[in-house]
Design a protein that fits this description.
Length: about 210
Amino acid sequence: MQNYPSKLLEAAVNEFSRLPGIGRKTALRLVLNMLRRPTSDAERFANALVRLRTEVRYCNTCQNISESETCSICADQRRDRSLVMVVEDIRDVMAVENTSQYRGLYHVLGGILSPVDGIGPEQLNIQQLVSRLESGEVSEVIMALSTTMEGDTTVFYIFKKLQPFQVNVTTIARGVAIGGEIEYADEVTLGRSILNRTPYDSAFIR
């Protein structure tokens, strides 16, 4: 058990170590670094976290992180509103935007189906996607989920949910490695996968 010279130091280490991928040694190093900085730096850091938690919201349309009811992408009238790309989370939106190969809209699921982790359809933004298609404005839904077993299961589930609608369901080309994560794909590979997307049907997963 680590002995700390200060309860305040220990409390700060405890909070940092609650973050994913941050052990207690790394947390201590971060806290000591912050302690050596000017008070103004610590105040900016704390203020950024508080504002992040209290002011950031989710777009009413696509569930992307936003500072208003409608995110900047959904509000951009230059985007092709007939295209909706389905992604797992905000990191995938950022990765696709960095390719400059896509000018449609997005739909952020907030995760993928994973029964082992207790994540079912009710925990994801799938019904919101179905509701978006009811307007008839969307003609193509691009599935851009990671090519893992969970990702493919999620794609198939959504594909079945969208069958009643007259929309073309496609998936990005498998230039993204099987078992790979979208956010880690390089921009060229990801960009080509978007441009070379293929139709998705029940034969795709056989």
